[in-house]
Design a protein that fits this description.
Chain lengths: ~240, ~260
Amino acid sequence: MPKDHTVSAYDKELENLRSSIARMGGLAEAQIAGAVDALFKRSSDRSAQVVAADKSLDSLELSIEKDAISLLARRQPMASDLREIVSALKMSSILERIGDYSKNIAKRVGAISDAQNFRVVRTVGDMAHLVQKMLKDVLDAYIDQDEVKALDVWERDTAVDELYNSLFRELLTYMMEDPRSITPCTHLLFAAKNVERMGDHVTNLAEIVYYLVKGDLLEDTRPKSDSTSYTVLRPSDDD
Amino acid sequence: MIADTGNVKFTTRDVHVFYGAKEAIKGVDLDINNNEVTALIGPSGCGKSTYLRCLNRMNDTVDSARVTGTIELDGVDIYDRSVDVVQLRARVGMVFQKPNPFPKSIYENVAYGPRIHGLATKKSELDEVVETSLRKAGLWNEVNDRLDTQGTALSGGQQQRLCIARAIAVSPEVILMDEPCSALDPIATARVEELIDELRENYAIVIVTHSMQQAARVSQKTAFFHLGDLVEYGDTEDIFTNPREERTRDYITGRFG
């Protein structure tokens, strides 16, 4: 950690920014867990909680944005300070986005719970669990200024994509077998897509943490393995 | 800490400057490129102004000062016996912290140099040099109807641009600026910075500044000095977003102990 600024109020403002990001990250993590919990328990109360809690993420993002702009305007930050503030701006908007995906999953809980004889596929829970862990680790990397840990998270998104690919095929199969499952399966597919997108956003967070610590941009060479955009299942595939 | 392009104007190697027994610069290797602004930054007493003053031998005027090492302008050692210091200072012009126009008319301020250097003799030639120099300094439109008024009657920002016009009137190749904007208001500062950016097309410019924002705005290369050492030199963008040396980072982010 660098030494203190000659102007101590500057240190305090940067510290506030960091702790707001950490708070947002903790909230975003809890929202993923909450949304998936509501989904598996078919709990409308739980899902309503998640939807309501999204507001605190929105307001935190707004206050981080205000603080960051004010810091840029008043302190003319340089070097690591500049990277810190720019990173906070970007991370807060990504965390807000991750929160939106959780909220969207929570909103689908009703439609999925209404379906008779439909069991939520476990893979969605596995995906969410992976993403939640990645988010936790990237926040630790942020707090510890640990670029190695950030790189590790960056490489882990492939596993989420692979689960999503297999879930995609599985749900298509169910829908072909029983048209009554189309409604819950479609909602579940959107929920899974949301989780997959969250994973992508977490890798962006990892890139930002890397830049924050090292000062170099991570070139985007990460292997992408979400192939569902090209996946086609025909009835004959099913034999 | 050697510049990366082939367009080098000044090559300086192992430069030491002593004021009596005190070593103000402790072995600096640095290149100054053509068509670039090189900013020298660092806390007071770091040696940046002393280094700047080596480049046109202004330190010769300080009795106790002694300069060692090599300082080459286009490959010629400027401390060589054969070098005419007056000619050198015409090639390497200087603009100071406080605008210091001669107590003469605006016209005479600019015409003086070309006349004593014999660059223009006829009145028509002098008129042309005066106009071109004032235009290059971005001052012509403000003063062309009152070239007979005293240079000292202009505003601070105009005086500084007059001093820049005076410096470029003798067709220098390098312009040294020692905190050229520290006595100017923000608008006058912006005009001078705009001018520096235009002048870069034709000159090598070296600027000493205490304002890191100014160094970041106007320069392409930045050199950070501390306690007589050149700590870090590189592209300005890199120095201000991702400095490699801890001392540079501490200084530019305001963490100097």
